[in-house]
Amino acid sequence: MTVPDPQSPTREAGVSLEPDPLLEALDAARSGPAVTAVGGGHGLAQALGAVSRYAGKITAVVTVADDGGSSGRLAPDLGILPPGDIRQCLLALTPDESPWKRLFAYRFEESDVAGHSLGNLMIAALAEIEGSFEGALRQAERMLRPIGSVVPAAGQRLLLEAIVDDKPVAGQVAIALSRGQITDLVVRPTSIEASPAALEALLEADQIVLGPGSLYTSVMAALVVPGIAEAINESAARLVYVCNLTTQDGETLGMDGADHLDALITLTGMRPPNAIVANTTAIAIEPPLAAVLADEDTIATYGVDVVGADLVDPGATWPRHDAARLGGVLARLA
After folding, report:
1. Which fold has domain 29-66+154-333?
2. How confident is the model over 182-193, as pLDDT tens digits?
3. N or C end: fewer C-beta atoms under 10 angstroms in the chain?
């Protein structure tokens, strides 16, 4: 099946770009700061769960370099943006249970659709029906009624490339699995520019939240899109980085909080955040993984404050952030 390029004007034919009055009314009814969260995957979904507890306006700026799983199968074949991270964000921003939410969350386990999320397939189908990915996203929002907006970092699917131990590695999955020091990270094509909606959300935010999530292949995969870091630097928003609870095998082994911060600043050109949020609760985890510790004295050399708190979800089988605890810390920083 051939789908026109998402940048092509023909994909916009028949798509209404008028604001949805109901969605606008829902946003207007909320009070609180305008918060823009940047990243991808489960980490960004966790951040949105925390942000939704205090923000008046929420925007998720999502990486479009995912090439694994269901997204990695659908995006290149159909000529669409990877739908998986976008779907996760939509679900994270949808507090009310409904048949639509259950359908978007459903994942097939058998037959030729095994591994596919039904929500990814629905977004792909909506892109075909509406004539654009933007139209598909609008329709998905009308179905789910999220309390915020989900915005792709760029208007087309991107290839993430890194230098790992002086060797080039291409693709988000390949980079995530590569053990070694990452000294460069870019997206291809280099001529791409960030989506206008993403830039607007960053420039108009009161608070910008980065992380948690895979440092290079989720958080920085969005930040290295040309224009994103520049918009963050120009924005008057308070910038907060949420440290991961543990290191990630193949991506951040041996890195502490200061190492995460240095990589963010060095490889993206982004300004130092106003604060780093780090967990202070002991985490039992098998080597070579380790808890990410944020040394206040080292991080202070970057002009960044460390805000420590108990952030671990006590009911999780694997270390993850508790939305209420993280939301309380971020609300104070906003």
Report:
1. Rossmann fold (3.40.50)
2. 999 999 999 999
3. N
